Amino acid sequence: MITVLFFAKYREQLGLGRMTLPLATATTVSELKIRLVADGGDEWAAVLFAGNTLCAVNQTIAHDTDTIGDGDEVAFYPPVTGG
Amino acid sequence: MQRRVLVQEADFDVSDECRALASSSRCGAVAQFVGVMRDYNDGDDVLAMALEHYPGMTERSIDAIIDSAAQRWPLLSATVIHRVGELLPGSQIVFVGVGSMHRHAAFSACEFIMDFLKSEAPFWKKERRADGTERWVDARDSDTHALNRWSDHAE
Question: Which residues of B fall within a CB distance of 8 Å from A61?
Answer without folding.
Answer: 120
